[in-house]
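Exam revision sheet. Question 4 asks you to relate a sequence to its structure. Input first:
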Amino acid sequence: MKTKAKIVFLLAAPIFLWSCQSPAQIAENAVPEGLLLLPLPPPPLASVLTPAETGEGGQPPAPGVAVFTPMQEYYIGRAVAANILALYSLWEADPVLTLYLNKICMAIVINSPKPEPFNGYRVAVLDSQRAASFSTPGGHIFLTRGLLAAAGSEDALAALIAREIAHIHLRHGMAALRAVNAVGSAGEAAGLITAALLEAGFSQEQEASADSLALRLMAAAGYSPTGLLEALSLTAPQPQRLDDISRSIGVSASGGAAGYRQARFNSILGNF
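Answer key, structure tokens:
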């Protein structure tokens, strides 16, 4: 695969990314100190690549599916994040915006079935006018400047982030490692996932399951599910997909907080 040869593997290198705030920080409206150096030292490559013997909850893995521990998935995901940052520049010009996105992230994940992955969730902005978003195993979420500029509401931003959280929860990125015997190194594992994210994309079945989970995550966090329709319209999905979501949503009231959310969105992204 030519793509894998071009992908830079930086598993052992420290990666600078913003972190989601803790619930205590959000309550105190604390501002993090900027970029966070992920402090965890990388484990031996063999321990990253070797699948665990049991799945989540101690259950045996499904046939043909590689099972990794949360720590293993985190380090593989961190390498995928490094590959993405080798292709896109991190946009650091507006820390208030990045903090805002991470607060939305925390509001969603704190109500999710997996509020605390191995080393937390983090959202960062990529300096690209392309409308795109990516997520890696372990909790890294990337949104491009082009995608943020096209969004028109906080509900749409929440939907974009919720969908990436859903892909992480459903382990869609790790699905690229189903044929684990064909993977010879942790770098190759990260290369397979990166290629799947940037080139092949997710299957229609994976996208549908992520849409369904994103709707539930948004509802639990108090966001309007109609934001998902707005978010998907930014990336030109298939009309059938929008119809399926519309039927799932039905008639939804926006709620009394909609005006407040829109005012907050306008104050941060009004002139973006």
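Marking note for examiners. Strands lie at 16-17, 36-37, 122-126, 133-135, 140-144.
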